[in-house]
Model the fold of this input.
Amino acid sequence: MKQSDNKTIRRSDDKTNYEPKIVAFLCNWCSYAGADLAGVSRFQYPPNIRVIRVPCSGRINPLYIIKALQSGVDGVLVSGCHPGDCHYISGNLFARRKFALMKKFLDYLGIEPERVQFSWVSAAEGARFAEIIKKVTNDIKKLGPLTYFRKDFEKTGKVL
Amino acid sequence: MLKEKRNLMLYKQDFEKFFRLLSETFTIFGPSKTDGSRSFTKIDASDEIAFDYENTKMSLKEFFFPQTETLFFFDTEKNEVKQTDVETNKHDKQNILFGVRPCDAMSISFLDKVFNANNPQDLYYTRRRKSTRIVSFACTNPASTCFCTSVGCGPDSETGADIIFFELNGRYFIKTVTPEGEKTIKSAEKLLNPATKNDIEEKVHLMKTANSNLKKIFDSGNLQKKLDNFNAPYWGKLHRKCLGCGICTYLCPTCHCFDITDEVIKSNGRRIRTWDSCMFSLFTLHASGHNPRPTQKERMRQRIMHKFNYAPKYYGKTFCVGCGRCVIYCPVNMDIRDVMKEIMEER
Amino acid sequence: MRQIEYEIINTVEKLFADKKIDIFIGYKKGTLSLQTSPYFLSEQDDVRKLVWNSFCSNNLAVFIPRIIPNSKSKESKPVGILCKGCDSRSLVGLIKEKQINRDNLFIIGISCPGIVDRRKILSRLDGKEIIGIDEDADSIVVKLKDGEKRFEKEEYLCESCLNCAHPTPSIYDVLIRGAVYSLQAITPDPITKDFSSKPREERWKIFETEVSKCIRCYACRDACPNCYCKECFAEQTKPQWLGVSKGLSEVIFYHIVRILHQAGRCVDCGACVRACPMDINLRLFTRVMVDEVKERFGYEPGISLKDTPPLATFSADDKQEFMTEPE
Ligand code: SF4
Ligand code: SF4
Ligand code: SF4
Ligand code: SF4
Ligand code: SF4
Ligand code: FES
Done:
């Protein structure tokens, strides 16, 4: 999928010292362990992610991702076991289909593709985990905060 | 009520001036050409008004009873409650709703009975209502879906309006209905002349034609009695094609059911009142899981009964003004006129 | 048209006479011009009220899970239903997802010449009152107080009919053949293709403007046969996903998730579009998923009872070009 081109007008100007908030849904058996390994091995990665542990990437409902974006995060990463390695054998393969459609749809609507990312990270890939977090954080830093459908009270209701 | 209603005339070429004079004191809302008269919007110049519109898609009720109303804000950390602008009365603009259809004006008089009664009185509704004048426009060309005369309203009904306009040849016939109406046109008094006998005749004739274009489909008085049979067999059939979408109630100018919930983002919260609809399956769902109106049958019955049986008993009025919105927009063409006819024909 | 109407009426009459069905769902004349209304009839009702014309727009499949709530049950008699191409595709989806039992249906299929979009016609009438409608094979004649207006059907079809690949029902017990337009279905749909080529910001702006009209009546969901959930995410309270206000953020959330839920299910029948009272161009957003599902997984919803729905299966070599790799 084409990542959003540089020509895109920035949707936010406030990017000085901007630290994005990113939610990472990590599967318990691989990516979460990978994150753990990254920590134990002291690989440096940006502190912008908030980890939510899930049993399997197949557990992710696109609803969770949209809800996270609506609730104030600037980006979402979902990470699970490499194809073939899923603890539940095929959870990630089902997930891959959902992710593909979701990625396409959000892009189509005009949401930058970097906002929602998917990756495979095994329990042994601490370094890879750190690299992916770096990439995701950088991508979203470049985009600035996601404000265009965040829920806030001011935008709602019509007062006469 | 006004002791003496005045009949005044305004030349169409003076309308622009008239509008400007009024807009010095009031913010004017009307059916605007720009949004295809979807709802009443703010009008800045007289030529933005779509005079020839049929009914707006959204009814007037959203002005006084918006789909989402913040009742108050709160902060769970500071343990604080903040009032809204309506509560603190900071919204003290005076508004005119201009070009209102007589059925919509009447619907507001019904909502008044619900929200603007003595006890209880709804603060939000009443504050908005108090600061708003209703200038209605008699219908000379009713739509095919209008059936106001069947439910005690009509193309020249004054109920609910402060002033009513009739469009005559080259001029407007203006009738003041309430003291507020009188006050509203004060600043433009110099543009207005008393109506002559000819003017009155022309107006009467005009409305006769409009009235004759509206067929009386049923008699809402008899209907009420008929509906006293709560377990009539037709209830088992009428609802079958209904999807339960609630369009009919959301667009209806007299439907006024709501729900109150809290919304919290971190420590900031607000209590909101939002539209609800008896056509929704969740409407009467209890926390226990029990639902006294378990199927669309009971919901459909509730909608019809509330309008044509309970409301007449409680408020003395049929809560339908015949605007035809539910007829036009129902996705399965559930035509309330047909439903009424079917009920009336039932032995 | 008339001929087909007769055939429908005769078939239904016979079904009742042979005691094959107790109830039939078809269309009857609407109370508004350019519209019909779903018609539930049992033996004692008038079969001759059944109609078939270019305005039979409701997707009748939506009623089936409502009147036969239990997919496992085997009813004593099947429910009779009139199905256009898309209605039957919706039924296939419902059968495959175990919402209904094929044995509980008696389907009169009808090869569909396309449904005329009443809004397109109305927009050409400048609010003039319609006195009568005439229809022949290729056109609709609208009679007005001051004359007539002729509309070529092909230009006034619903968007989804203009690009319908399967106008003939995919399942049926009896098929009534009629003329179908020999339309060349195109994927991706020209409308989505055009939308995709717009700059990102503009796409979002269009989406936002469209859905900002939404009053959250959920008619789009209620009119959709494939939105059958007993408890929709939009109304769930434990946990509550969606706030109840009319705020833009909630509306955007609702539409994104509803359309994603229909990915792989949506048969592009256009029922949601026609149901929306606010004239929101929902198809601009639903159709893209139909195309994507076809392109990626080679799947077209509602065509066969055999193949597995795309999101209920996988292939080891599904494309994964969108996955993030470290730089
Ligand atoms: S608009 Fe029609 S389908 Fe929707 S709830 Fe009302 S009667 Fe039922
Ligand atoms: S019930 Fe229908 S016709 Fe009557 S006031 Fe409500 S929307 Fe108008
Ligand atoms: S039918 Fe239209 S207005 Fe109603 S919820 Fe769907 S998009 Fe919104
Ligand atoms: S989402 Fe709309 S077009 Fe798709 S199947 Fe449902 S009603 Fe039909
Ligand atoms: S929107 Fe989703 S949850 Fe709601 S009824 Fe449709 S498929 Fe079910
Ligand atoms: S267990 Fe890791 S993706 Fe399924």
